[in-house]
Amino acid sequence: MEVNCEGCAGCCMDWRSLLEDETGSAAARDDEDATENDSKQRHRRQRDPFGGEDAKSSSREPLDDDPTFVPLTRDEVRAFLEAGMGDALTPRFWHARDEAEGVEIDGVSVAAVADRPTFFVGLRKPPKPVDPFGREEPTWLPTCVFLDPTTLQCRIHESELYPGECGAYPEYTLALARETECERVESAFGGDRLLEADHDDLDGMLLGPQAIGAKLFCHPRPADLEGVVDRAAAGELTRPDRAEAIAVAAASSPGTLATSDHHYDRAKARLLGGEDAESEFADDESWIGPAIREWYQRRRAAGEAVPSPAVADAIETDRGAPETPGWDALE
The pTM is what? Predict the structure, then answer.
């Protein structure tokens, strides 16, 4: 597999608004009487750069709106918690395909296994000023917490925490015979990104029943998710909301529906503080939580203004985020 990632990071951010900016006026003229929300939804159905021309609607739509969500395994969730980086994690729930497979929470039929709401755990995407695809001016876009907006490189690439799903992209997507982010970027902005399209088989993807407890987590107490599902759909998850789901993921047992009370309590304490919160990183406050909070604060305060991506030095690097090598160092 050979890809050209310099100046791209399309798989690490939600760049749909870049196309919406260019075509929004035309979409509005198609129906002058449409509300703003209806116009956006219609636009996404007709010109979704992440769906492909032959894409069909998923039978189980996620509650959130992240098109490049990367699912982590149970062991990866535990590793992030051990490293004091639980603030980087967030759950994803889905709408049930039909009533028979769903559990109703907050008025939503949530996809479930054996009456246990199912979810992934992935990485958060706070807004960052980025200028991918050769754009001359930066734009606020939802961007992976670990992406350096200055170099558009991953801060944990080649580290022990680098997710396996990230390392296998785009091979897994090609193996599933689906369009990759590289190809979508090529279609939208030109250039060559997917240089060689070889791929291995689907070993390691954790598809089917073996995903349960290993990548697909099942919450044993649906009542504990009251309010969480509603906030997940609104994009307003709180730290306790995330902690509840992440603790269940960390407590899960691969291949079963069982969870460990010990691992649940330990994980939740690390996320929220408590007597079980000790780790070798306990004395070092992670840069992630404060950085994410400042990104959101700056985005709200900025209005229409967009700062230079270099502001990440003060927000992330100065707080201890690993630096990236830059592209010259990789040549």
Answer: 0.87
